[in-house]
Amino acid sequence: MHVPDGFIDAPVSVAAGVFAVGAVAVSLRGARRELDERTAPLAGLVAAFIFAVQMLNFPVAAGTSGHLMGGALAAILVGPYTAVLCLSVVLLLQGIFFADGGLTALGVNITVMGVVTVVVAYAVFRLLTGLLPRTRRSATASAFVAALVSVPTSAAAFTLLYWIGGTTDIPIGKVFTAMVGVHVLIGIGEAVITALTVGAVLAVRPDLVHGVSGVAAPLKLRVDGELVDAPAATRDPEPAPARRSTRGFWITGLVSAFLLAGFVSFYASANPDGLERVASDQGFDEKVEEHGAADSPLADYGVGDIENARLSGGLAGVIGVSATVVVGTGVFWVVRRRKEEPGEAPRDRDHENA
Predict the structure, then answer these.
(1) Please, which residues bridge with residue 163 across strands?
(2) CA geometry: angle at 215 spanning 88 and 196, to 5°?
(3) pLDDT of 34-57, one tens digit each?
(4) DSSP secondary structure of 153-175
(5) Which of 58, 101, 152, 346 stands the most exposed, by the fewest C-beta atoms within 10 Å?
């Protein structure tokens, strides 16, 4: 749901840009509490993975496709503040280098796809994990619901902005019904991808899932063949185990992102996404303006002067993933380092052994 230039008028675009800058500023400060020596590179990996998966449009209805937004996935894996930064990095690179999402609409896109999806998804996820049994299955189901809810909510947020500053006189009720309707279907795809990814990480490295941090099931003892909660007095304190290295997980995740963007993306649906289809059906796509980066050598996720579509798209995907992981990791390392500046609370050095 990348909003192009021309859909929203200048005053509302500027206001959304100011809001987005404020959200990023708050997230930069909040991310200091979420990031450490291990999670900073993992946050860069999450941004790169979201970039890759967003290239995989999947069909949701006749002539319509959708793609992952990633707000729920990022919030659950690395925390809500860091997630806003992840989405902001992805949207910024997509807009500047790949002509995906308008440059004047960057604030709108960060607000709708970054802030709204993250806040809604994380709130729903934490609510459900607090109510449901503390199991991996419950956490995965909570991720599914959180992602499902976040997508149509994001579509509703776009509709609100369009109601305030849309550049065409279209009945807002029709826009709302069409946007939310198609994005409920897209939300199902987002929910499946999010649940599968979160479930996979929980299966191999639950310690790396921010959304379940601090949520530990009570110690179980087998009594007469049945598992029961151990009395508090019998839980002997043990020294915290040394943290496992994240290197293997990081390499596996990055290779997966390269494969998705460089190879699997060739088989993505070529149909217009939900916003494009609604804009076409409702007639407000006539106001779209030419992208400021339309002449970029990577515009439309292809490398200029390479005629082979498979090679061009795959190479563009690999370049995009590489740029995202480098820029994202750099941003998160800077944020983490600022945590150690004078005036900030010192970190627990015992938790830095990767």
Answers:
(1) none
(2) 55
(3) 998 888 889 999 999 999 999 999
(4) HHHHHHHHHHHHHBSS---HHHH
(5) 346
Q: Which two tokens stand for residue 31?
A: 């991310």
Q: Could you tell me the pLDDT band of residue 215, with boundaries at 50, 70 and 90?
A: low
Q: What is the Cα–Cα distance from 89 to 78, expressed in whole angstroms?
A: 14
DSSP state of 221: E
Amino acid at 304: G
**Chain-centre distance for alpha carbon 102:** 19
260 neighbors 55 (Cβ within 8 angstroms):
yes
pLDDT tens-digit series, residues 265-286: 999 999 999 999 999 998 888 8
Report how far apart, in Å, the C-alpha atoms of 305 and of each of 27, 111, 129, 299, 313 are: 39, 35, 50, 12, 12
Determine contact, residues 190/71, Cβ cutoff 8 Å.
no
> Which residues neighbour 90 within 8 Å (Cβ) at sequence distance 6 or greater?
47, 50, 51, 54, 70, 324, 328
Residues facing 64 on adjacent strands: 61
Structural domains of the chain ordered from first start: 10-213+244-347 (1.10.1760.20)
Listed in sequence order, the residues at least 6 apart from 10 whose beta carbon sits closer than 8 Å to its beta carbon are 104
Tokens linked to 274: 């939900």
pLDDT of 58 over the 80 cut: yes
Q: DSSP of 291-317, one letter per residue?
A: -TTTT-TTGGG--TT---HHHHHHHHH
- Amino acid letter for position 70: G
Instruction: Please give the model's pTM, rounded to 2 decimal places.
Output: 0.87
How far apart are the C-alpha atoms of 274 and 162, rounded to whole Å?
15
Phi-psi domain of 225 (left: phi exceeds 0; alpha: psi -120 through 50; beta: other): left
Measured CA distances, 175 to 158, 161, 171, 231, 283 (Å): 10, 11, 7, 57, 10
**Cα 246 to Cα 82: distance, rounded to the nearest angstrom:** 18
Per the listing, tokens 């995740």 go with 253
Q: Say if residues 302 and 268 touch (Cβ distance below 8 Å).
A: no
